TrEMBL record, chains A, B:
Lineage: superkingdom: Bacteria
Keywords: DNA-binding, Metal-binding, Repressor, Transcription, Transcription regulation, Zinc
Single annotated GO MF: DNA-binding transcription factor activity
Pfam families, A to Z: FUR (PF01475)
Cofactor: Zn(2+)
UniProt record, GO biological process: negative regulation of DNA-templated transcription; regulation of secondary metabolite biosynthetic process
Originating organism: Oceanotoga teriensis
Name of this chain's protein: Fur family peroxide stress response transcriptional regulator
Keyword flag Repressor: yes
Classification of source organism: Bacteria, Thermotogati, Thermotogota, Thermotogae, Petrotogales
DNA sequence: GTATCTGCAAATGTTTTGCACTCCA
DNA sequence: TGGAGTGCAAAACATTTGCAGATAC
């Protein structure tokens, strides 16, 4: 994992969203901002717990939902559970049908010129999602 | 609701997928094939129950999952639950952030020229989803 | 001190499974 | 009579909430 955001940057990001900085929020922000495979709430909790950082599932939940409201992260509905994506530059997603992990894909369809209204429905965002097997699950398949 | 598929057509569709025709399967297929707002399993069950057609939730579940395996319907992960779309011509979806209902949108991005491989991941489908408020929820908002 | 933050434990709601019963070839 | 179809009741999960105690400003 490439550490794109260090503690100082994360503190500034949270402050930029008027979110008070707490140790728990830093922990969660660090994971979500630096993760390539957008983790679920459960996975964030597991990652932190395994690395000795104590936090409850509920707190991860509260923090992620707060980040979501603030606009720091976006919810991605994957195979079985929601995953969360730090929402910085426009991009698409690849969802693995087997493991459910979500990978970023460079945006190929411009996000700027989608219709703002379709049949009386007001459109505020557009998502492009690719589905298939990730490289890891592809290899697992070959082994069988 | 425009009745696009009558019983005979549905029987043929099921047979085309080598699915044995039973009264329950006909009921579910009729709903899912002729629905504009792609219903959830629960909604299909409710629609049938309210119209006096007896079927259990489990059977709707079994049938939808069988249709999904066969390729008749596709799962759409909406707001809180999965919805199911009879998968006939390529199109996009509009998901209402408020009520979670899913509406069809004429495909604007061609489904044919997406990459078959991205960074070792094999791509087999592409979905374009618009998010916003449907016309009904738009109106509800105005009333407040 | 008081509002915020945290987290246990329980509730909720959807999805899934186990198993027994029914039905028809 | 046996395999497929059905459905009740319960399990399995992810998600969400209530509430009480801890923390920080």
């Amino acid at each position: 994992m490439i550490e794109l955001y260090d503690k100082d940057k994360i503190v500034n990001i949270l402050k930029g969203y008027s979110i008070r900085v707490t140790p728990n929020r830093l922990k969660v922000a660090e994971i979500i901002l630096n993760s390539e495979v957008h983790p679920s709430i459960d996975e964030i909790h597991t990652i932190l717990t395994k690395s000795g950082k104590n936090i409850s599932f509920t707190s991860v939940y509260n923090i992620i939902k707060m980040f979501q409201s603030a606009g720091i992260v976006k919810e991605i509905k994957s195979k079985d559970r929601s995953r969360y994506d730090a929402n910085l530059k426009p991009h698409s997603h690849f969802i693995c049908k087997n493991c459910g992990r979500v990978f970023d894909v460079d945006m190929e369809i411009t996000n700027s010129n989608f219709p703002t209204s379709i049949n009386g429905m007001s459109v505020d965002s557009l998502e492009v999602t690719y589905y298939g097997l990730c490289s890891e699950c592809n290899n697992d398949n070959k082994d069988n």
